[in-house]
Design a protein that fits this description.
Layout (H helix, E strand, L loop, with lengths): L16 E2 L4 H13 L1 H8 L10 H13 L6 H7 L4 H7 L8 H8 L4 H14 L4 H4 L6 E2 L5 E14 L33 E10 L4 E9 L4 H19 L6 E5 L6 H10 L3 E4 L9 H9 L3 E2 L10 E10 L16 E11 L9 E3 L2 E8 L8 H10 L2 H13 L9 H25 L45 H13 L3 H4 L7 E3 L4 E3 L5 E9 L5 E7 L11 H4 L10 E7 L4 H24 L2 E3 L3 E3 L3 E4 L18 H10 L4 E8 L17 H4 L6 H5 L9 E8 L6 E6 L3
Parallel strand pairs: 3-6, 6-7
Antiparallel strand pairs: 1-21, 2-3, 3-4, 4-5, 7-12, 8-9, 9-10, 9-20, 10-12, 11-12, 13-14, 14-15, 15-16, 16-17, 18-19, 19-20, 21-22, 22-23
């Protein structure tokens, strides 16, 4: 068999040739330079340092990093830039890009005030999102045909896992870099020892991020909510849209009485989950749910068939210990409550209350029932789950779940640049292929062809309720059921369970766990794990016990004064006796509380209104019958980002830097400093600090970008100024 001759020639790439994956970053920087936005960014992101790189240099570095796909760590990315570092920095008018070590030092000096004050202006104004946000396709239309802007308020967490710190003779005590950076919290489906919480506000129709803020642990939504609502108010002014038609969809963490007051004070409509289980203890509430008019909820077919009904306008009274920051009490607040029900077919823990064979959930909405019927309120709330998919897309496209700095504001700085790239891609993809301004006509509302569901329960069960099916032993009194639960818990090998907590102990014969300070925590949860013989048990301290505990700083990570200890343990229970016994005790306890409320006496008022010591409910009024089907936003932000990214899949970039001032600087000898401020080493002004790594006056930068798409191809020339 004959062999063909093979010749391999090796050569260095041209000095002005840029790798393909960096072409997108070059285009973004060149556009920002052309728009004059880099100067605004430099004024906003002022990092206070004695010397070294500025906030603008760090911004340019991370923009290249995220635009290139965020592959690998910062050190590996810097090694890829060794040959072309000066060419890339010249596009932004800078003389060089920071190294990974310089980036770490710069992020360690970031002041958190510059992020909270300038994040919205950076994410919206500097990205050119104005035409996108003003387009009709990013707005939702209600049942009366009015346009709405929809916002999603939610959070995502980044978790860190800790390895054990070995204790060796002759070595210093081990420390963790994350000690002042992250803290313990609820990670959801993620698993880790400590975490960061990022609270985000997103414009649902455009998919653009409007605000983001990092906190340790579970975050502090008491400060995040007012800040997010302020952004919504500014947005309404920016796009000249009525604030009364800007609705915020938030998860159940924002459904407490202080949060409802915050929404009302800001005059921003909202939809959130209503977390008041006491409602289900009221016989009159159950009667309303049983006799309500249930309408089918429109959905995508991916979940259970849901039905919705208006429960009424609820007067919510604050809790006994709920106070403002200054110690004053909250007043009662009226809010519309919408109920949702679906047939429960799985034994998994879900939100809401199980009534008969139906899972019932409650939602609070500050929306006109004429424009937003009950079924559309429920559909709108579950529409916010799209933000979870966007969190996933964000991690896949930008890698924002990576740790860039162990200084919390520095980490937020890097995350903010990543969200900036996200928004910029949406804006440029929209500009490259603008959708038509005319939307499809809104469909008229039609009567549901489905038969309404049966009643939730037999009304006779209010007086003689039947116990849950998973309760095995028919035990009469609450005391006997709690005693039985204690006997079941005695079968667990607590010595093995508490081997890592020698100061803790369980009180025999009771569902109590005793902490090192003597406080008793009650068993509240017992749920099966994936392993067949494993159970997860949660013990919770009573209210106010942890407020005066001397071990509170080391025991609790939360800074809330009302926070209390919650101990989660995994135990072996092959027969799974604990969940049934716990359910029996909890059910009996609820019945005792319900009977006590009935004997305390509620009085029925005219017009279908009743009042207890907790709340009042009255019927909602519908002024105008709904006309149309609620029409969600038609814009596809993911396709807009893809449209922009596709323009650089097969592209070629060349950067030429023509330096007119080679050699030493004119008028200055390297051994002489004529300025007294420099000789005295005085602090540099912001302008002097910014000019430290600026290109010399007269330097010319030429960028040539060739692509299959004509809109992405360009030839740009920039002239730096002194």
């Amino acid at each position: 068999m004959s062999r063909s001759a093979l010749s391999v020639t090796r050569s260095r790439p041209a000095a002005d040739h840029i790798p393909d994956d960096l072409a997108q970053g070059v285009d973004l920087i060149a556009r920002l330079q052309k728009w004059g936005e880099l100067e605004n960014i430099a004024d906003s992101l002022r990092v206070r340092r004695e010397g070294g790189y500025s906030g603008l240099d760090a911004f340019v570095f991370f923009l290249y990093y995220f635009a290139a796909g965020a592959k690998g760590g910062l050190r590996g990315f810097c090694s890829r830039l060794a040959r072309i570092r000066q060419q890339l920095s010249a596009v932004a008018g800078r003389s060089n890009l920071p190294s990974s070590a310089a980036i770490s030092r710069t992020l360690a000096k970031v002041d958190p005030s510059i992020l909270r004050d300038n994040s919205t202006a950076l994410l919206v104004d500097c990205t050119g999102l104005g035409p996108v946000l003003a387009h009709p396709t990013v707005r939702c239309r209600d049942a009366l045909g009015e346009d709405w802007h929809v916002f999603d308020l939610d959070g995502t967490v980044t978790v860190l896992r800790h390895r054990a710190l070995p204790s060796l003779d002759g070595t210093p005590e081990g420390t963790r870099r994350s000690a002042a950076f992250a803290s313990a919290g609820y990670p959801g489906r993620k698993r880790g020892d400590v975490q960061l919480h990022r609270s985000t506000l997103q414009h649902n129709g455009s998919g653009a991020w409007l605000a983001a803020h990092l906190e340790r642990g579970n975050g502090d939504h008491r400060t995040d909510l007012p800040a997010a609502l302020k952004v919504v108010q500014q947005f309404a002014d920016r796009v000249d849209h009525p604030l009364s038609r800007c609705v915020v969809r938030a998860d159940g963490a924002y459904g407490s009485t202080p949060d409802l007051h915050c929404f009302r004070a800001a005059q921003v409509p909202f939809v959130t989950r209503f977390t008041r289980p006491k409602l289900f203890r009221q016989p009159d509430v159950l009667e309303r749910l049983n006799n309500a008019t249930w309408c089918c909820v429109p959905d995508s077919g991916g979940g259970p068939e849901r039905w919705a009904a208006d429960l009424g306008v609820v007067t919510v009274l604050p809790g006994k210990h709920t106070r403002r920051a200054d110690g004053s009490e909250y007043s009662a607040v009226d809010v519309r409550i919408v109920a949702s029900r679906f047939a429960r077919t799985r034994d998994e823990a879900t939100r809401g209350q199980l009534i008969g064979d139906w899972q019932v959930e409650l939602f609070a909405a500050d929306l006109d029932p004429s424009a937003w019927p009950a079924s559309d309120v429920v559909a709108a709330y579950f529409g916010r789950t799209a933000i979870e998919n966007r969190f996933l897309q964000e991690d896949r496209e930008l890698g924002l779940d990576r740790i860039f700095s162990y200084h919390l504001p520095g980490q937020e700085f890097a995350s903010l640049v990543g969200l900036f790239v996200w928004n910029l891609r949406i804006a440029l993809g929209f500009a490259a292929n603008p959708p038509p301004a005319d939307r499809e006509p809104q469909q008229h509302r039609a009567e549901s062809e489905k038969d309404p569901p049966p009643p939730l329960f037999d009304p006779q069960s209010l007086t003689q309720p039947e116990p849950p099916a998973n309760i095995a032993p028919p035990i009469a009194s609450l005391e006997e059921k709690e005693r039985h639960l204690g006997e079941v818990l005695d079968k667990v090998d607590w010595t093995a369970v508490l081997r890592k907590r020698p100061d803790w102990r369980r009180e025999e014969g009771t569902p109590m766990m005793v902490c090192p300070e003597g406080a008793k925590l009650t068993l509240t949860t017992a749920e099966a794990q994936r392993a067949a013989d494993k159970l997860r048990m949660v013990f919770r301290a009573p209210p106010r016990v942890c407020m005066v505990c001397p071990r509170r700083p080391e025991c609790l990570a939360s800074r809330r004064p009302t926070a209390r200890k919650q101990l989660s343990l995994t135990v072996v229970d092959s027969r799974h006796e604990v969940p049934g016994a716990l359910s029996a005790a909890q059910y009996a306890r609820r019945m005792v509380l319900s009977e006590a409320a009935v004997h305390a006496g509620h009085r029925v008022e005219p017009g279908g209104t009743f009042r207890t010591g907790v709340l009042a409910i009255c019927d909602v009024s519908v002024d105008t019958a709904p006309v149309f089907e609620v029409d969600n936003a038609a814009f596809l932000p993911a396709e807009a980002r893809k449209h922009y990214v596709r323009g650089f899949q097969r592209s070629s970039v060349q950067i030429k830097v023509l330096d007119a001032n080679t050699g030493q600087l004119r008028g200055r000898h390297p051994l002489v400093e004529p300025l007294r401020s420099r000789r005295q080493h005085q602090r540099l002004s912001w302008a002097e600090h910014q000019a430290r790594y600026a290109l010399r006056a007269g330097t010319r930068v030429e960028v040539m970008l060739a692509s299959e798409h004509t809109w992405a191809s360009s030839r740009m020339a920039t002239q730096t100024m002194s």
